[in-house]
Amino acid sequence: MTNSERFLAAFRSIDSCLHGLTGARTHLAFRAVLHKAGDTSRVVHRYMKDLEQFGRLRNAIVHEMRGDAVIAEPNDESVKRIEEIEKALREPPGVVPEFSRDVKVLPPDAPLSEAVLVMREKSYSQIPIYSREGDFTGLLTVNTIARWLGAQTG
Questions:
Q1: Residues of the domain holding 130
Q2: 131 and 63: one domain?
Q3: Are 72 and 142 part of one and the same domain?
Q4: Is 1 helix (H, G, I), strand (E, B) or coil?
Q5: Residues 123-146: tens digit of each pLDDT
Q6: Which of 82, 80, 60 is nearest to 71 (CA)?
Q7: Are residues 27 and 50 in the same domain?
Q8: Is the dihedral of CA 42, 43, 47, 48 positive or negative?
Q9: Whole-prediction pTM value?
């Protein structure tokens, strides 16, 4: 498979994905669909400049052919990049495991000072509170602590 064939296959897949994200009509121009999708999808927005450039390259490949020969054959790096973007759009990373972390939890009877120290050391803005039996009982936040402190001064 030539680079232009690989490029066009990835481009068609991206175009289909963008139409799916936006619900746009199939005959809507790529650039219009791209910008509409970029307004709602962080993944699309992240690759916006590359996709705009690839849209121009696609037009040169498809619309400027000389017989059966393309006038612009994408280089290996461009093909690799558009295939990476296509994969990112088709298979976006999931919350887990991408953002899973070990979470420090505290029991309801833990001293507030312990919670504040953990928040400071770990740069946490909140700590889940679990009973000794492992049941979630609440979420301690910096906002909650600030309101409690404010109530104590008045």
A1: 112-153
A2: no
A3: no
A4: coil
A5: 999 999 999 999 999 999 999 999
A6: 60
A7: yes
A8: negative
A9: 0.64
